[in-house]
Amino acid sequence: MTSPAFTAIQDLQKHLAQHIIGQEDLLKKLLITLLADGHLLVEGAPGLAKTKAIKALAAGIEASFHRVQFTPDLLPGDITGTDIYRPQTGEFVFQAGPIFHNLLLADEINRAPAKVQSALLEAMGERQVTIGKKTYELPELFLVMATQNPLEQEGTYPLPEAQLDRFLMYVRVNYPSVHAEQQILQLNRREAKGEITFDMTADKKIPTEQILQARKDILEIHMSPALEEYIVQLVVSTRDPRAYSDTLAEQVRYGASPRATIALDRCARSHAWLSGRDFVAPEDIHAIIYDVLRHRIILSYEAEAEGITTDDFISELLQLIVAP
Fold first, then answer.
1. In angstroms, rounded to a whole number, what is the distance separating the alpha carbons of residues 160 and 14?
2. Is 94 exposed, middle or buried (0-12, 13-18, 19+ CB in 10 A)?
3. Tell me, what's the pLDDT at 134?
4. CATH code, domain with 239
5. pTM to 2 decimals?
6. 3-class DSSP assignment, residue 155
7. What domain range is 183 assigned to?
């Protein structure tokens, strides 16, 4: 592919790889989320470049960025904004909140209560915010990346299933390799010396129009009817896998919603496009299926008691449903 949009995204990939080391999977899934017009939930221990990854993305494109630290005392209006009374005019004026930026980092989202978490629901699903009697449209380029810390569960509020389903993908971040950690040390030293500039110059930033064009190009990628049916079968079988295995049927309480089917399609297309192909292959589906489904499947109490995870369930499903 040699389209301007593809070239621009390649430049963005190089920019991200220059500043984020040892988290190649996170960077790819972040780009896929951007190109598939979705939102990303990232889980990982502190210090694994989650925040730095989206800041690097914001530094590489012409888009506004805001970070919100979620805490137990946060209010919904702190996210969406609120009407402010102006005594000079005797009128209420809407003061937009951080959600009106193109890229929003919801840091440690499970630290805030459900009332605040739900403030993101309308924005993530409908791309709009309703305050009082007025509805405000969000930017066309709008991405929420939420993080949560798996180490401490005391004082946290698990995300409700309705909000989990709003996230296109749920990525788990692991520690980098020994070699990557040494490179991180060297990169940090160079950044401290000012030898590497984190923010791209204005003339090198990727215009928003290029990203929107890339999204249109991705939708034109060819997917065979057999692969389309394969995606549908994978999702439908999470709801009732009895046709493939009685054991799996006993392990699941609730399967994935139709949003999962749409997410698999969009993410597989984006993965193929990033790989430089104009068609979707089975490996594109397999590369993103765990991140798309792991938060959309609710296992039975018996399966959880046996230590079975949603990833184990998906792996078994992939063994039973043969790719075309």
1. 36
2. middle
3. 85
4. 1.10.8.80
5. 0.93
6. coil
7. 4-193
